[in-house]
Amino acid sequence: MTNKLKYFVANWKMYGHLGSLNSLGKVINFKKKNKNAKNLKIIYCPPFTLLHAFVQKFKNSNIKTGAQNCSFISSFGPPTGSINASMIKSLKCEYVILGHSEKRAKGENDKTINKKIQSALKNNLKIIFCIGETMIQKRKKVTKKILLNQLYKGLHRIKKKQNILIAYEPVWSIGSGLVPRSEDLNILISFLKTYLRNKLKFKNPKVLYGGSVSPQNILVLRKILNLDGFLVGGSSQNSKKFIDIIKKTFN
Ligand code: PGA
């Protein structure tokens, strides 16, 4: 039976040294040996310092690698401390996470995110584009408006839609242990897909959920309608937990 939940993105955030690669053998074996895992897209997004090592480690495994951010500037030059999309691509990375709320909270706005998406696509990276509302916005019942606004502005004038995955990550859910109610998620994911299809002209939109995904709540989250996968932060830093999450989505 094929799993409709196809994408499992591991966002390692600011976690990991070279020694942390030792634990990845378990995931490589799982991907290779478990027949249900063969067709899954497993994507690891470690910090920049580990990108090259991850690409090497996953070389023959069909597990993909992505960065957690990139500059909106496509060429070489200043600013100090930044990394652009072509540098990421040159490592044979395939993905980049953009628009994460932890970057938005530090001042990244929709316009900058839009420029980053353009630069990443120009360099043939695939995008994991994060959107999500804060708790205050949720309480004010403006979640849908916020999400549409982030999508509309972030994807302004973007043509290559097939290389963009949307990750719905409520800000209040990230790292908090809280997840939205299933009935709310069912409505929101379908709502986002309809908007992506009808208004933003996505042919086959893919939407992931992220925020406190764990081996415990995955049994509920796996039932969300129309979902294509998960963006996992904290729980992905432990290979056993990450594999457990994936396995529990199998029928
Ligand atoms: P979390 O993080 O799973 O630790 O909540 C998700 C994310 O920030 O992508």
Q: Could you tell me the mean pLDDT?
A: 96
Low-confidence stretches: none
Strand content: 5-15%
Please summarize the sheet with the most strands.
8 strands, parallel, barrel
Q: What is the rounded Rg? A: 17 Å
What overall form do the CA principal axes indicate?
Answer: globular
Distance between the termini: 7 Å
Strand line-up in the sheet with most strands: 1-2-3-4-5-6-7-8
How many β strands by DSSP? 8
What structural category arises from helix and sheet content? alpha/beta
Characterize this entry briefly.
Helix 1 runs parallel beside helix 10 and helix 7 (143-154) packs parallel to helix 8 (182-198). It is built from 10 helices and 8 strands. It has helices at 24-33, 48-57, 85-90, 101-104, 110-122, 135-139, 143-154, 182-198, 218-221, 239-247, and strands spanning 7-11, 41-45, 64-67, 95-98, 126-131, 164-168, 207-210, 229-232.
Description:
The chain is of the alpha/beta class. It is 36% helix and 15% strand. It has helices spanning 24-33, 48-57, 85-90, 101-104, 110-122, 135-139, 143-154, 182-198, 218-221, 239-247, and strands at residues 7-11, 41-45, 64-67, 95-98, 126-131, 164-168, 207-210, 229-232. It has an eight-stranded parallel barrel with strand order 1-2-3-4-5-6-7-8, surrounded by four helices. Strand 2, helix 2 (48-57) and strand 3 (64-67) form a beta-alpha-beta unit. Helix 7 (143-154) runs parallel beside helix 8. The N and C termini lie close together (7 Å). The model has no long low-confidence stretch (mean pLDDT 96). Residues 11, 169, 174-175, 210-213, 231-235 line the site of 2-phosphoglycolic acid.
